[in-house]
Amino acid sequence: MLKFKSTINMRGVEVKMVNEEIKTEIEEIITNPQLTFHQRKHQLATYAESLLNYVPISKEAAFAKENGIICDLFEGHAPYRPRYILPDYDKAIKQGSKFLELDPPKDLDEAINFLTILYTHVPSITGYPVYLGNLDRLLESFSEKYDDDTLYKKLKLFLITIDRLLPDGFTHANIGPEGTRVGRLLFKLERELKQVVPNLTLKYDQEKTSDELLIEGVKTVFEVGKPHFANHQMITSDLGEKYGVASCYNSLKEGGGAHTLVRLNLKKAAKEHRGRPQEFLDTTLLKYVKLALEVIESRAEYLVNKAKFFEHNFLALEGIISKAKFSSMLGIFGLKECTETLLDDNAHYGHDKEANKFSYKITDKILEILDKTEISHAEGNSNKAMFHSQSGIDLDTDTTPGTRITPGEEPDLFNHIKVVAPHHSKFIAGVSDIFHFEGTIRNNPKAVCDIIKGAFKEGMREFTFNLTDGEFVRITGYLVRRSDLEKYKNDESTRYTTTPLGEGAINIQGVLKRKRRMINHERNPWFN
């Protein structure tokens, strides 16, 4: 427990002075050469919040949290803003903003100016907006009077502004599912500018998305590691048409979001279990899911009724977001290790049929518990927590992200997809698997398109790939540039807040160990 001691300042007013340990830790943040001014300020604010008492939870939940079975992803002891906010930008553009003193934009310049200003006022766990909207659809109606060259220049300046103003890899924009002139130009510009921000998702719908747009997306990945591809039909069946993919593969309702994301370390939960594997589902797993939901509820309660975010923030007061569209997320990670811990020594998730089948039982059971358990402040998902396959953080030593297969242990591409796809339909709030392709695939973008289509037919919710020889390295839902990693290693600061996270993930999670795919050497029934 951190303790304070009282003293008297020069004006004779009693103040609180922190102990030496706290002062040392604060000074380490202030003097860290690897952090920019804004990064230092954000870490100082996070540190200050950590000095408050944690939101009320039971002793059992506190024990699980302290021992890493439950993890709140360092959201802070007293949440005062939702973790993820997805504003309804279309509504904001149509009505304007009284708080920001902005009228509804009438042309493209005003629309870009409106969005740029609004972005800087959207809070999140990172301090930057995690969702910028469906950019092509937002701007398409304003673009009609401009020729391609003029539109190209205006969009180019907009993308540069976003990257420089919001230097966080979790800042995310969507394109699609229909093709638009703005969408095609955005892909072209991404290939030219080679920026980390914004991260991108292409919503793919086999009935609405042309092969031309899909290939544009694939070619853009070749250059900058983005976009990743979302199964639009599957997600709309869960969330409706007005959804966004934000931050780290998080599918949430537009105009809403998630109060909090609390995750369950299935590996550690399995190590706590005493008994047969089947008993784990009905006893140990049930216990820790319930404790995680307790933490979720307490955090959401504090945000809503103590910090009163929705009563004070202009986004809610002006209807740009609505509490009725928010829920909270329960994430899982370490499914691979959990499965193998509970079964015999020969179990190998991703390769062994029995291990794979048991892994489906685990995710089925968690979903069943969530569907039967109502929680408060979750109107956006019928008063239930949203299930999420959490894609890991840089501190997850020897624990595989989400429901993925450990990097370096993946089977051939076809069987890899067949193993993980049955999990995807369960994760309404997002799930991810990342495939590492050799650079030779640049010569055959259509082959990648066929793989994406085939993966969605198998039931994948989202598909993400990366090239082994590219400047951009996909860590999880965010990207880092190799050149920025080198700067960070040399104690230089970089603009992007996610560079330190990427460096840690490469060293600890083995991101670069993902199996390299040479498409022409692997069995693939989806090729024409």
TrEMBL record:
The gene is yjjI. It comes from Natranaerobius trueperi. Pfam families: YjjI-like (PF11230). InterPro entries: Glycyl_radical_YjjI-like (IPR016905). It comes from the Bacteria. This is YjjI family glycine radical enzyme.
